[in-house]
Amino acid sequence: MNSRYNLLFIIFSIIVFSSCVENTIDETGTVNSQDYLIAENIFNDINRLVEDAFIDNGENKSCPKYNIMNVDTSNQDTIIVDFGDGNPDECLSYGKERKGKLIITYTGKFIDSLSVITTTFDQYYVNNNLVQGTSIITNNGKNEIGNINFTIEVISASIIGTGKINYNSNKNREWLNGFTTFNDPLDDIYSVSGSANGNSSNGQNFNVNITQKLYVNLSCLFENTCAITSGEVELNPNGYSKRIINYGDSICDCNYSVTLNDNEYLLVTD
User: Fold this and answer.
1) Which of 31, 21, 9 is nearest to 235 (CA)?
2) How far apart are CA 210 and CA 55, in angstroms?
3) For a surface tag, which of 49, 73, 105, 174 has the fewest beta carbons within 10 Å of its beta carbon?
4) What is the tens place of the pLDDT at every residue in 15-74?
5) Measuring CA to CA, which residue among 203, 210, 252 is closest to residue 232?
6) In this structure, are residues 268 and 254 in contact, taking their beta carbons and an 8 Å threshold?
7) Residue 211 reports pLDDT greater than 90
8) Spatial separation of the C-alpha atoms in residues 229 and 251, rounded to whole Å
9) Does residue 152 register a pLDDT over 90?
10) In the chain, how many domains are there?
11) What percent of the chain shows pLDDT beyond 90?
12) Are 171 and 192 in contact, with CB atoms under 8 Å apart?
């Protein structure tokens, strides 16, 4: 009888120990933060591509190609941004390999007040990640201090690479600099506020709130693929302690820090 109880005790101890180890890994890990940064980077990049579609129709570009359809100012129109099928090589844009299409429908130009620009995806890949979902940019016109601001929603998005990230967001972007030089986007500076939520590649749900406005400086694209230079977000994985993601001190790099339970972890994205 004692041997039976001993065996049950050992089995119970193994289960408890395994559970504690798993919780420790989840509690101290940065997978959720890394996956959020990947999703954020990809959809910020898509916003840049959408804005580009209204600057240049691509007649002098080999990649991507722009196909403007249903040009009628009285109704919704469409732009298809085609990055090709990846053969012989993926299309390079802003330092990233791409293939597939962005399908952009719009009620007005990017800089037109009250215009609504909706983007969906047709077998669109960036750096071998399949991107799905819907992005909606609404031009709200000028705010009380005279800056144009946009509501940017990402709805039911997924990013499928080595794992799958699900992502939704609702953010406000205020145009601080560069509006008067619309055809030269690399002098643009924005501030961003808002929230996001999703499910990371490890299957864990998370919620995100921007606690200090993010500042986006597109001149950074001369140097790398990351344009957010400062700000903080609070990321809360379901059932675990919050993480604070800090974007740095106005430097153009892809280096961020994550603070969890007074411990700081460094992350590098691209």
Assistant:
1) 31
2) 29
3) 73
4) 333 333 334 334 556 789 999 999 999 999 999 999 999 986 545 566 888 988 876 666
5) 210
6) yes
7) yes
8) 5
9) yes
10) 1
11) 58
12) yes
- The pTM assigned to this predicted structure is 0.85
CA angle 165, 50, 56 (to 5 degrees): 150
Q: Residue 51 domain-assigned?
A: yes
Beta bridge partners of 171: 152, 194
Parent domain of 119: 31-268
- C-alpha 57/C-alpha 188 separation (Å) is 20
Q: Which amino acid is at 88?
A: P
Question: Quick check: is 207 in a domain?
Answer: yes
Q: 267 exposed, middle or buried (CB, 10 Å; 0-12, 13-18, 19+)?
A: middle
Structure tokens at 227: 């344009």
Please tell me whether residue 21 adopts helix, strand or coil conformation: helix
Concatenating the DSSP letter of every residue in 214-232 gives: EEEEGGGGGT-S--EEEEE
**Closest by Cα among 167, 165, 144, 147 to 157:** 167
Under 8 Å between Cβ of 120 and 136 = no
21 assigned to some structural domain:
no
Which helix (H) or strand (E) element contains residue 105? Answer: strand 96-106
What is the identity of the amino acid at 156?
S
